[in-house]
Amino acid sequence: MSAPASAAPGGLAGHLDGFVRAVREAGIPVGISQAVDAAEILTVVDLLDREQLRHGLAAVLLQRASQRPAYDTLFDLWWPLSDRPRAGSASGGEDDEDPGADDGSTLDLPDGHGDADERDLAQRMREQLARLLRDGDDEALRRFARQAVEQLGRAPASPSGQSYFGYRVMRALSPDTLVAQLLAGLLADGDRGGLAEQVARQTVRERLAAFRSAVDAEVRRRAAAERGRDRVAKSAVRPLAEQVDFLRAQQSDLAELRRAVAPLARRLAVRLSARRRMGRQGRLDFRKTVRASLGTGGVPVVTHHRPRKVHKPELVVLCDVSGSVAGFSHFTLMLTQALREHFSGVRAFAFVDATDEVTRFFRPGADVTAAISRIGREADVVAFDGHSDYGNALEVFADRWPTAVGPKTSLLVLGDGRTNYRQPGLPVLADLVHRSRSAHWLNPEPRRLWGSGDSAADRYGEVIDMVECRNATQLADFVTTL
């Protein structure tokens, strides 16, 4: 989808089109109307004000705050500091200016020649950085970061071209060691130890983070000029939270995953109980039907039924909590906690090579991280060697809780189906599926790996609905198509 050429000069419109495509490829949904609005933004903002352009495009292209980090990374690649649109420029492309060119606000810094000169250069730049951090001028700090990468981030030339690295800048300037000096400049005498010091420390942390971000953005810009924006974007842009594989999720991703899981749990509850609500009428009410037929000569033209009582669905969740799916088990237990709000009877069972009920750890308001720790300490989920044994775990579940799964129960199995070459327990699983109202298995591994090595996922898929569920996006697709 191209932005209208009338919104701006043709070169700038084409540049915007490339940016919008990159945002869409990063997983941020951008429709036609949003692309048109982005083109309109170019006609109403000051193109010389880079931050105004950044926020204007973000206002029409983004729907959630979690999309902002990916957007900012792409914006810095497509609208870099040295290449921002200028008055009278027909293009914002990467080849419009020399990467080392400046616009007149260059800081007065020396060139380094030799080890002694480089140490002197680093010391003088370090002093300049301290002044900029104390003053809090974001624009000057970004321009300083650009020069710091040019002067201190350059690695020895290689046959593939010139390379720059942010860690070389940070090692030379050591900005974290400036904290005491910055606090002394920001605090007046007598302000130590109070609220003013806390505010000053937070300000210093934010300015240091802004400098690191500016250095990283400049390194990416130079890499994009050397290798192309698209190649750099693939490695520089972190996946959105809903695209992160559960098996690889980091601690920083879990908070966003919790926010994504809650609405999906509500939708899953609705879908799993849909069949109960589809039949609005219960069994035939013979007496009312006969009475009504008296008015039509004994012909039951209209039938009457007893009202059908709709109950909240019951759910049994079987979670694999072995080490091979540690990241996924954290997600599955978050899902279990969220589902408890929508099902009348949620029973959660965890297993490794044995099974234990862990419903008691998921009371309303319970912290998922604390619940997982308690499962590891208190739940009886290991019987032998602590390696996954689906066959034994299923048998223990069927023997100890024979009435847990019944005709009113939805069964949800969560695991990768890797049995360590042990018996998979297919007959037990088939019996559970037969007794349940509905049964589904969410597998965090890619479909292409099912059946490889010790995976019995393909065999389990013959007796239960096996669904690939590696991230929140696939979970949403499963809920939508259920």
UniProtKB/TrEMBL annotation:
<dbReference type="InterPro" id="IPR036465">
    <property type="entry name" value="vWFA_dom_sf"/>
</dbReference>
<dbReference type="InterPro" id="IPR008912">
    <property type="entry name" value="Uncharacterised_CoxE"/>
</dbReference>
<protein>
    <recommendedName>
        <fullName>VWA domain containing CoxE-like protein</fullName>
    </recommendedName>
</protein>
<dbReference type="InterPro" id="IPR011195">
    <property type="entry name" value="UCP010256"/>
</dbReference>
<feature type="region of interest" description="Disordered">
    <location>
        <begin position="86"/>
        <end position="117"/>
    </location>
</feature>
<dbReference type="Pfam" id="PF05762">
    <property type="entry name" value="VWA_CoxE"/>
</dbReference>
